[in-house]
Design goal:
This protein is mostly helical. It is built from nine helices and no strands.
């Protein structure tokens, strides 16, 4: 598991250089203040495509935002990705997802706050992280919960795959949390190694 104090494997661009690279890549300037983009903007073209994919789901997605954030939090937990957990704790909290539900993804099968839809999404998330694909039973549950809406189902699988990729990038490059950001909110508890 990557520790918060480990050095990044690649240099993080200073904010002014990251903003210039962001302009070149078509990435919003404010993203250049995040460590992930200070790393990725070393490759502006790729950073632009990466931003477009994630932004399309974050800001224009068909999948319910709460469900997306629960899946992302589960990915952060399963992969031991402190950066993903910590950043999306903040995103999900701003969207109104309760701290109880966010902590609940750690052991979602035992959390009483989730109904059939959350359980279907989290089972699909576990499948993709563990096996690289959604199992037939999880797919059937998602299909039932989303009334067969192919747009939502495609986006669900894409979101899980995309944020699984994000966790791999963050951990592989050892991207650190931004200065002053506390690790593993709300209680500093990280997944077992």
């Amino acid at each position: 598991m990557t520790q918060a104090n480990e050095p990044s494997r690649i240099p993080l661009l200073p904010v002014d250089e990251a903003k210039a690279a962001a302009d070149e890549a078509g990435v919003p300037d404010y993203m250049a203040e995040l460590s992930i983009f200070q790393a990725l903007l070393n490759h502006p073209r790729l950073a632009g495509v990466f931003n477009d994919l994630l932004a399309s789901m974050l800001w224009h997605g068909a999948l319910d935002r709460r469900l997306r954030e629960l899946a992302i939090m589960r990915i952060g937990w399963l992969t031991g990705c402190d950066y993903e957990w910590t950043q999306h704790w903040r995103v999900a909290s701003r969207l109104g997802v309760s701290a109880e539900d966010l902590v609940g993804v750690r052991d979602w099968q035992a959390h009483n706050g989730f109904g059939a839809t959350e359980r279907a999404v989290l089972a699909a998330t576990d499948d993709i992280v563990r096996d690289g694909a959604v199992s037939d039973p999880s797919w059937a549950a998602c299909e039932r919960e989303f009334d067969g809406d192919t747009t939502v189902l495609i986006e669900l699988v894409t979101a899980i795959g995309a944020w699984r990729m994000v966790a791999s990038i963050l951990r592989s490059l050892k991207v650190p949390l931004e200065e002053g950001v506390a690790s593993w909110p709300p209680d500093g508890v990280s997944p077992p190694s």
